[in-house]
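Hey all, sorry for the wall of text incoming. These are the two entities for the joint prediction.
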Amino acid sequence: MADGWIDACAADDIDEEDVIRFDHTGRTFAIYRTEGDRYFATDGLCTHEKVHLADGFVMGTIIECPKHNGRFDVRTGEAKGAPVCVNLATYPVKVEAGRVLLQIG
Amino acid sequence: MGVDVHPRNYSLTGPLNARAVEVGLANAEWYRTSIPRKQMKELMQRSDGRATRDTLVWLGLLVLFGGLGVTFWGSWLCVPFFLAYGVLYGSSGDSRWHECGHGTAFKTQWKNEAVYQIACFMMVRNPAVWRWSHARHHTDTIIVGRDPEIIAPRPPQLWKIALAFFGLLDVPQALGAMLRYAAGRLNDAERDYIPAGEQHKVFSVARIWVAIYAATLLACVLLHSILPLMLIGLPRFYGAWHHIMTGLTQHIGLAEDVLDHRLNCRTVYINPLSRFVYWNMNYHVEHHMFPMVPYHALPRLHAAMKDDCPPPYPSFWAAYKEIVPTLLRQLRDPEYFVHRELPPTARRMPASSSPQAAAAE
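and here's what came out:
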């Protein structure tokens, strides 16, 4: 860990338009790779009910919760409508030397 | 000597709600069949093509049969056309409400929302109330005190089920609820599952619907005919039977308070026409376990997971051969239910993670 950046995974561990789960110090995160090899990170659990978003479905920059189909914009964490009403927390992400780094803060 | 029958308390505001939370049955982790991520992503893929085609066929048939019903109004010839129109309105409306509520029918979200609003109106289901009700049904499927969509509480009230085939109980209740929402009121159970910030949506839609029904009634008065109601409103009664016939197969008579959809849902093989009306919800174990898979991919999902599930019922007849005797037995023995046997190829839910064990203690 340098300057608060945490090595989460290899960039290739995530398929394009997909998401993986990353657990760290008792917390769980979701790391996304969207079209054009852009990476984003949010809290790992849906704000509606405690379901892992990593089991969900990525469409463009939207993640759909696997339980109730609630949708969030992975870039901003914005909840896109019922049944999700509370935004997700997002975290800075960068890719260096083929590794995905997360700044959890 | 009579038999003592003790009904369970299914109320969302009753003591079994807190009990379910206490023993870990509420908002719990459910069993899921292991399917490779790559395959799951393919199954979850959305498209507009199939749902657009199906929706154009659906709306086109409504116009066709409704038009022919109007044309032959006054003679017996109108009867078959209204029978078909009624099923497309009062039963297909149910499956379109359901799938578009999940947002999985179309890739484009406004299309899901548009069909959802139309279907909600047809079914007299307030879009906001039922979105939250159904979310809870998926969180806590057939968990007593938590699931607002348990349609046959034990012991079953058979007369209510019989009346549902023609909407004779639920539709008047729904219309009453619509008037209550239009007046700006929710009951305690609705306040339990609809977040405060969402409640205003309930009231605004209800007021629009009241205006539509008022206009329809006014048209009846002006035309001295019930024909306008035969097209708007009444098909929810005379066309409801198909969605009740299919809907009753979903969970009735199966286990309550389990965290495994293989044990509390049925998958039933049915004819292609009913699958069109029902939008493939006969694959109900599959839908509940993976609700993000669109209706048109459910047969493929079924093929991928059937070795991990109890055998599907081969027909409506096979399902009802189980359901009817179960309901009759539950009249005198509310504890009775159908144990679904998992095949030898199936994985078991780890006993250590089962809150049912805790509930039983």
